[in-house]
Amino acid sequence: MASEPVAPTWQEEDLDTDEMILQMGPQHPSTHGVLRLELRTDGEVIRGVRPHIGYLHRCFEKHAESMDYVAAMGNSLGYALTVEKLMGIEVAPYVQTIRVLFAELQRIASHCVAVGTYSMDIGAFTPFLHLLRDREKVLDLFEWTCGARLLYNFNWVGGVSHDLPEGFTRACRQLLDEFEAITHPELMNLLVGNKIFIKRTAEVGVCSAELAIAYDLTGPNLRGSGPKNDLRKDEPYCGYETYAFDVCVGDGRFGPLGSCYDRNLVRAMEMAESAKIARQALERLEQGEKSDVHEKVPKRVKPPKGEVYFRSEAPRGQLGYYLVADGKAVNPYRLKVKSPCFTAMSVFHVLARGMYLADIIALMGSLDVVLGEIDR
Amino acid sequence: MEIVHELLVKLFPALAGLPPWLTLALSAAVPAVLLVTFMALGPIIYVYAERKIAGFMQDRLGPMRVGPYGLLQTIADAIKLLFKEAIFPRGVDKFLFLLAPCLVVTGAFLPFVVIPFGERLVGADLNVGVFYVVAVASLSTVGLIMAGWASNNKYALFGAMRSAAQIVSYEIPAVMVLLSVVMLVGSLSLQDIVQAQAGGLPNWFVFRYFPLMPIGFLVFYTAGLAECNRAPFDIPEAESELVAGFHTEYSGFFFAMFFMAEYTEMFIISATASVLFLGGWLAPHPALQAVGPLELGPLWLIGKSWALVFVMMWLRWTLPRLRVDQLMHVAWKVLLPIAMGLVVVVGGLTLWPATAQGFVWDRYVGWPLSLALLAFLAYVMVGARRWQARRIRELAA
User: Fold this and answer.
1) Is A276 found in the same domain as A187?
2) How do residues A286-333 score in pLDDT, each as one tens digit?
3) CB B216 within 8 Å of CB B301
4) Measured between CB atoms, does B363 come within 8 Å of chain A?
5) DSSP E strand stretches across chain A
6) Which domain holds residue A32?
7) Which of A184, A373, B236, B315 has the greatest number of C-beta atoms within 10 Å?
8) For every residue of B373-395, which 3-state class applies, written as one string?
9) Which of A38, A120, A129 best tests the B interface by mutation, with the highest count of B CBs <10 A?
10) Same domain, yes or no, for A75 and A136?
11) Could you tell me if the ipTM is greater than 0.85?
12) Same domain for A172 and A25?
């Protein structure tokens, strides 16, 4: 049987004969969880990258308030504030101060992981363990207060689950003392000021302010590119307007503005600012009058019919909750989340083009994505 | 070998009656067994030291469970690795896959033959010793490429290509520096190089021809660091980029062989650096060379080498990793010009009789510099100690 000659559907020049597809992840030591990157590599140079997400689906329809497992306190705060906004609950100043204190401690703990793992991505192992030591201390405080170390059910609608234990302020103050006196300067000397570190990161993954805004980067990723955008200043909640602190932005000292170095520097400096806020909160807790933390907690969380959007400044950026209630059920009718990591991931392929293989890791670490927030 | 032979005959008179080939084999076996034992047991100490040093730097204890202070941890690890199954992933080239670790280990072990541990304690005092060290140390490069290629793994391939590029580039400045020392001594034999530095610390090459030889020492040490793939030049096995680089697919004993080779190479680089620049088995002062009849030569060499190995570990746990292009930049645009300039200048000096033994100011350099270094180390250590005490006090408060 004579067969018709089949016209080839491809030509030789269509084939990328020189390029190699490298699957990075999901089981790779530095993909920050289970991200999978499909890299088109030409030797050490990356010609294209396609991130594949969805390897960490943990049924988060039922777990909306702690998607970001590295900074669950910030997520649950945002969720509680959203529901409170819908229900029109105004919590006491004492509770607000506790919430601010815990949000800032969580920011320190979260940035400890972000900066620490970033140092490990670049190849320096030691700062990671030094930072993790301080994160553990923060988690100890959390455990002392509410019994959980990773996913807290601390921020309730209308209050917090537990009042601060006896002696909390003293222990917390000591932690901040140690952090400000030892860990933070050490970090600045050992890592942020290190010449190899600067060379590795200062001209890599440059994201201009326009690009950052176009791709909806938020939080430290956006501030690294220059805009002074922080919801704690712009749309204050929980009484953030009454605290004195600076919004840290990248300065482009060692290279173009918006590089990996700037994003990381913003995180490193924000830790010190958070410590400042935490100190002010501690003062208020000691001086101000106490109130029952369960005072405003409703017997039954049954919001009226309506919809609400609320965004807060989580450690990784703006975290927005869009909540629709039908007025009948206890569960939300609809809940949509705008997570900062998801949008940060979207700019990845733009920034990654044409860089070296090692820079891919540097870029990914500097965007500081947590897969729990992306894969939801 | 003649020495060993004499010694054997003296200890066991019966040996004198044996046929010459047998006594020859026996007297060759004694140093070989000694060296192989030293090489094979060395990594156990280095790995333990590395883990402890890393632990102290990172505010943790390091291994503590197996044996007192975790002393038996590496032995336990070695036993575990020996009994672990060696996995061959689908698609590996089995012959090359098995040959590669053997080659790497061979390349790491062979230089021991010429390293002089004492005046007469040397496996073989080759008249081309320096050349031999450079030549056999390159053997491991072949093994690394082989491992990367045979693994049928893209990360391993990346690691292999990187290591080839890196080791080839860094060998050139290292050899250039070796050349300048060889020109000064006029001999390629490591034993002759050591003897040329006799007469106490100021005669060590690192303190002679100030500031030429100190620069040479730093260039050689940096290049050596890169040659044994240690941080900050550990890009062939950069764990955050390439998982484990060329040995990604290895497991069990074959992985242990790569591990052993890495630590042995560290010792070799340090030992070569101490022989060439730090006087090898010579003591800082001739009076310290021996205690009564007991020669301290091996201790001096091992001590100097371990100090340099310690610096390697120190650097590894402090510095971030360079990128590939930056690595090449350091090799070709920084180290190589310096090394070449060194060769030219030192070559010119050898023609000038006035500087045959060094510059005039050299005898004012050695002792003050080393004393300053010791004082600085003491200052830093006391500072760290006081900082630690303060911290403990703060924690107790």
Assistant:
1) yes
2) 887 888 777 777 788 788 888 899 988 888 888 888 988 888 877 888
3) no
4) no
5) 20-24, 36-42, 45-52, 155-156, 159-160, 306-314, 317-325, 334-338
6) 19-49
7) A373
8) HHHHHHHHHHHHHHHHHHHHHHH
9) A129
10) yes
11) no
12) no
